[in-house]
Write a structure and sequence with these properties.
Largest sheet: 9 strands, mixed
Strand content: 15-25%
Low-confidence stretches: 1-15, 86-91, 102-107, 111-118, 386-391
Structural class: alpha+beta
Mean pLDDT: 85
Radius of gyration: 24 Å
Number of helices: 12
Oligomer: single chain
Length: about 400
């Protein structure tokens, strides 16, 4: 009986990875069947294209179009990818990614969009679309293949010569599964703007062909990455932006990943610190933000002690240091670990110490190299330390 139960369990696990299981429970893979899940579906395809562009040449781009017939077309100029890997059923060909199951592409620090299920790729979007067409430019030839609800309608077909490289994925979310198949231009534009901020130099465009009054479009590319992000956030909260946003990038093998941090203080009392893991917002915080605050407190305290502004057991608290602080903390990890079902709280324990050390070192060096700027930051913090709590 025990052996029978084990065999049944193995069969059940295998079945849960299949096409029908994804269609039976789409919310497990895109979060919901509402508009939120619809936009997550789009984000998975865009994330896959972004990964390809980031793995290729610098300055690449991803172009997203909301077509007049309710489809979404995602085109990139990433490196060449064949439809099938010769003689390798489980290879890296596009056909395998479209049909190979949810475990084909997991993890990786270059993922720009990560679904609530921790998956970013093409299998789920293919299965949850009533129709999908995939086009590749490879070896001087353009090849196209069409799918219906995850099943190939035919083998890939060569349609003519092609220059350069890239892919085009066009898909129509399945109205049988989603409550709405109409994407919000505003929601997607904000998401793509955020991804462009977090991946310096990446270009992302969004074009909407649906309005009766004519096409509308936006394009995002930020050469200074998270520094540009911080400047934009500071402007949104009505601050007096410092002309030189402080920022740094750092790779630490102990956390198997990289970090990019930017910050500034202004004259307001409002803190705005935003964290991201693999380009996805961590709205509930996590170890990367804990480490950031540890590092800022340590750097400010060390500088103040070195200037004789703090003595003995005097200490600073993170709440006071955060007054007027605008910051973005972005980590890209090979193996992100999240707490909770929503993937909005980063849990990698080693990240806290790594980020804390890096912030303390880089911000401390900046204080030493820019004494005037350091005084403009530290003096108000010290005054706030003794300010009434109910100011």
């Amino acid at each position: 009986m025990r052996e029978k139960r084990l065999r049944y369990g193995a069969v059940g696990i295998e079945a849960l990875e299949g096409r029908e299981a994804v269609r039976q429970r789409p919310g497990m893979w895109v979060g919901s069947t509402s508009g939120r899940g619809l936009h997550e579906l789009v984000g998975q395809v865009v994330g896959w294209s972004v990964n390809r562009v980031l793995a290729g040449r610098e300055g690449g781009s991803v172009d997203v179009t909301l077509t007049h017939d309710g489809g979404v077309r995602v085109a990139d100029d990433g490196p060449e990818v064949p439809f099938a890997a010769d003689g390798d059923i489980g290879g890296s060909g596009l056909e395998a990614l479209l049909t190979g199951g949810p475990t084909t592409e997991r993890g990786g620090r270059r993922i720009a969009q990560v679904s609530p299920g921790g998956y970013a790729g093409l299998f789920v979007p293919n299965v949850l679309s009533s129709r999908l067409t995939a086009e590749v430019r490879h070896g001087g030839t353009r090849r196209v293949q069409e799918y219906a609800r995850g099943v190939a309608a035919a083998r890939p077909v060569a349609t003519g010569p092609a220059s350069g490289s890239g892919t085009v994925i066009a898909f129509w979310p399945d109205a049988e599964l989603f409550e709405t198949t109409r994407c919000s231009f505003a929601v997607l534009a904000e998401r793509f703007r955020q991804v462009a901020f977090l991946n310096r130099g990446l270009g992302i465009s969004l074009t909407d062909e649906r309005p009766a009054g004519g096409t509308r479009a936006v394009f995002f590319r930020f050469p200074d990455g998270v520094r540009d992000f911080v400047a934009a956030l500071d402007a949104e909260k009505g601050g007096f932006s410092h002309p030189d946003v402080f920022g740094f990038e750092h790779e630490d093998p102990r956390m198997a990943g990289t970090m990019e941090v930017a910050l500034l203080w202004n004259g307001s009392h409002r803190e705005r610190v935003r964290g991201f893991a693999n380009s996805r917002a961590t709205r509930q915080g996590g170890t990367h933000l804990d480490g950031f605050r540890d590092g800022v407190v340590a750097a400010v305290t060390a500088y103040a002690r070195g200037q004789g502004l703090l003595t003995g057991d005097d200490a600073l608290c993170a709440d006071r240091i955060g007054d007027g602080l605008t910051a973005v903390v972005s980590v890209k990890l090979d193996h992100p670990e999240y707490l909770g079902a929503t993937h909005e709280l980063l849990g990698n324990t080693e990240v806290r110490g790594c980020v804390g050390e890096a912030v303390r070192e880089h911000l401390g060096n900046w204080f030493e190299e820019q004494p005037k700027s350091a005084a403009e930051v530290v003096d108000p913090i010290l005054r706030n330390r003794w300010a009434p709590e109910d100011r």
